[in-house]
Amino acid sequence: MTFPRVSKAMLPVIALAFVFCSYFGVHLMSAPESPRVLRHIVMYKFKETTTPSQVAEVVEAFKGLPAKIPGVVGFEHGTNISPEGKSEGFTHVFLVSFPDEKARDGYLVHPAHDAFVKIVRERREKVIVMDYWSR
Question: 38-133 domain in CATH 3.90.1140.10?
């Protein structure tokens, strides 16, 4: 393997660049860090008596929350498709993202969130809620 020739005049510039990058922690090959985001995960196991149209109503109501509540920076949802058989009957998952705890806390007490909870409360058998900071 051969390396390109570097003139003696370029050596101080290369050395200075190396010291600068080392001192300030600049990693030339790494991607820029993205800001942390607070993730709020909600998973539902519905009662056997809950009809498909009632489940669809829950999904639509949840999907509408980001437009009604300030501070939501991301939203995803879906149904379980894992082939592992370890979902314990939980079928639906929702992921709501916030920039910070203040936005999440405002979401939890917002009247639109309260109205949604009234829709889902009698239709769910169990719910799991977890929050975490993305890395």
Answer: no
